[in-house]
Each structure stands twice: as C-alpha cells, then as structure tokens.
Amino acid sequence: MIKLLATDIDGTLLNDNREVSSSTIKAFKDLHIPKILISARMPQAMTHLQEDLKITDHPMICYNGALVISKDQSIVDITIPFNTISDFVEIARTHNLHCSIYRGKEWFVPELDFWANREINNTKVEPVVQDYGRTLEYFNQTRHKGGAHKIMLMGDEEFMDLAFAKAESKKLPVHLYRSKNTYTEITPNGISKIEALKELLKHDFSNITVEQVVAFGDNYNDVTMIKEVGYGIAVDNARDKVKEVAVEVTDHHKQDGVANWLIKNSRLFK
Questions:
Q1: Largest CB tally within 10 Å, which of 27, 75, 193, 236?
Q2: What are 30-65's pLDDT values in tens digits?
C-alpha cells in the first residue's frame, strides 16, 4: 500500500498554464495520505500551490532538499557558504549572466530584467531588487542565518556554457545542475530530493517507509528519488534517465499525468 505521495512541481504536477488543474485538485482531495510538494522552488513559490491543493498543513521540501519545512520549522537547513556566493556573483558578472540568490523566503536579484520577470511570472513571487554589492554585504552581515539555499544563473546558452565550465573547474563546494540550456541551478553539496524525503519520513512519518512512497518527477534532479521510492513514476515528458529508473510512465504533465495515475491506481491507496 502507498502511504505517502511526493511530487515534483514544474514539468510534473502543473499544467500548461503552470497551475494545478481541477482534475489534480480532485485527485489530491480523494487521497487521505500525506502529500508532499518537493521542488527546486523557494517556499513562497510553493505555498500558493499548497493552498490550491488544500494541503497547507503538510510539510514541503524546497530548494531540491536544502530546506525542509514542517509545521513552520526547518528540519533540514543546508546552505552555500558566503565565499562561494561571491564566487558565483563574479562568474555571473564575467559572463554577462543574471544571478538570483535565495535564502529561505528571501530572493535577491540585481535588476528586473528579462530573467527576473520570467521567474516572477512562473513562480508568482516578487524578489528584492538591489545590486550585487548590497546583497553580498547583507549576507556577510547575517552569516548567523546561514548562506544561500540556492543560486540560479540565467542567460544565453553560449555564455552559460562558459560559466558552467568555469564553475566546474573551480571545484566549488556545491552541486551544479543544468535544468535548462539557459539555466544553471546551484545548491549545497550533499543534498538531494531523496535524502530530504528520508529525513522528513524519519522526523514526521516514522511509520512510513520509502517503499510505501509514490513519487512523480520529470528531470535529472528527480532521478534518485524516482529510483529509490517504492513507486517511482515518470511523466511522459520526463528525461530519458528518469524514465529508465521509473516503474511506470504516466501521461504528459500537460495532460494531467499525475492525476491520471492516481485515479487509475486508486486501489493502491486502500
């Protein structure tokens, strides 16, 4: 039996309008088990989706597992150190890239350029707009709060290729993830969605094992989660590496793949 649901958001749960469909809302309502959103997104970019799904009292896993929030408390909180944040700001400046810096519910951008406005549209969150110097000064002065949960570089693919290569050559203490040709997401070393999920199970759901979890995903950062849970499901638009480790492939995210699988397999939840 399945006792917990965990799902990625972008490219997995949301429809073409980056919303949860009425079918998905109904499918979630009919399931009387914990339902966990697990994403590279920041908390505020997830709470409005929890509200739509009527699961605001459920935990969430943010920043690919760097921050796990349960009952307004952080049970996992791992950040990128200040010096490494400075390194990526310099890489962004050198290669003419946008650099967004995230910590908890804070999101800092140097200006409201094309990339910032695109993320605002996608996530429904407004950033703090200030130059890199002021942001770095703020992080330096508030080191007791930790570093950044995520840094995101955005820009032209040609510049991104150069920046990615430079970051790799520096062997910085982070995980580099190319979510799109024009996006590089930087998260702390040692984090992953599956490890965060295991910590959440241990903390909040000790009676549930990983084998009793169904998880949905589409991208490279979902691979280990899909591989290790009892029911790892890939949406039809998922990367081949995700499909290879999934026990099943459901419909495209634009065709309510998650909801369709839940309805089709309702017997597994009884």
A1: 193
A2: 999 999 999 999 999 999 999 999 999 999 999 999
CB distance 213 to 82 below 8 Å: no
Alpha helix ranges (H) inside 142-205? 157-170, 193-204
Helix 82-94 to helix 157-170 angle (10° resolution) is 140
What band does 179 get if pLDDT is binned at 50, 70 and 90?
A: confident
For the chain, the average pLDDT equals 96
CA atoms of 141 and 74, how far apart (whole Å): 22
Distance CA 145, CA 82 (A): 11
Backbone angles phi, psi at 213, to 5 degrees: -105, 135
Read off the amino acid at residue 108.
F
Angle subtended by helix axes 44-53 and 22-29, to nearest 10: 70
Predicted confidence (pLDDT) at residue 226 exceeds the cutoff of 80: yes
Instruction: Please name which of 224, 212, 218 lies closest in space to residue 4, comparing C-alpha atoms.
Output: 212
Q: Which of 248, 245, 211 is nearest to 233 (CA)?
A: 248
Q: How far apart are CA 107 and CA 125, in angstroms?
A: 9
Amino acid at 264: K
At residue 188, the 3 state secondary structure works out as strand
Burial of 19 (0-12, 13-18, 19+ CB in 10 A): middle
